[in-house]
Design brief:
- It is a single chain.
- It contains 8 helices and 6 strands.
- The protein is an alpha+beta fold and 254 residues long.
- It has one domain.
- A hairpin with a 5-residue loop joins strand 2 and strand 3 (94-95).
- The termini are far apart.
Length: 254
Amino acid sequence: MIERLRDKINLIHSEHQIPLSDLRVFQKELENWIDFPKLIRQTQIDILRGLKVQNGIEPIKLERSFVVHPRLIMVDERIPTLCWHLYKRPDGRLLACGGVRHKRSACPPYAPSPDKTRIALDESRAVVVIQAGGLSEYDQQRQLHRTLLSIEKQLEENAFNVIHSWSVGPCRICEPENECLGEGKCREPKFRRFSMEGSGMGVFLTCDRIAELTGDNFWRLELIDNWELNNQTSKMFKSVVAIAVGLRPQLDSI
């Protein structure tokens, strides 16, 4: 089943290819933004690692960050459907991601549609993409979610307007104390964050484009074969979050 998923991802990617020269043009446009240098300083990976996170959870294994033009983020209607892709479980059954199986409130079909994601990106001036690595437990994704909230707060305190942000995997903000209410209901809508993939964003292709721009191939992602089985090809995984940033309010009319 994993090869079929790769094929689906590769097909979507093949329809959204952009020459490196065009990627650089978009980035050059971004670099002309008056607040770009300040945003770069605020999102250096060493700065992000030093943030105190809500509820006392320290930032986890943040490895790299990069600020991209919103047009570098690919959005496609087919990407959320991949959440229903069947994969083999340890008991031999073929099941889709638990987020959609259990109707978690931050997963499709309750996540924003790809059209709404495009609108959020169109309203943004830049997108901060942050990658964590060396993760080995689902609980670390919950920690990453809380880290994302702390980064957003830091940006807002430094006069940036956070338009929208996306976390990774099913939202786990209520865990471990409570389970998700499901079916779109939410105890903490202020803190709920939808995943990039569930909102239609091409995370693999976004990381590939950043790797092309930076020359840092550690940005690239690979699918892990035989997930949760004894012969799983890697025990560590990467996760990616993103924050769309707009103009400061006082500059909106310029």
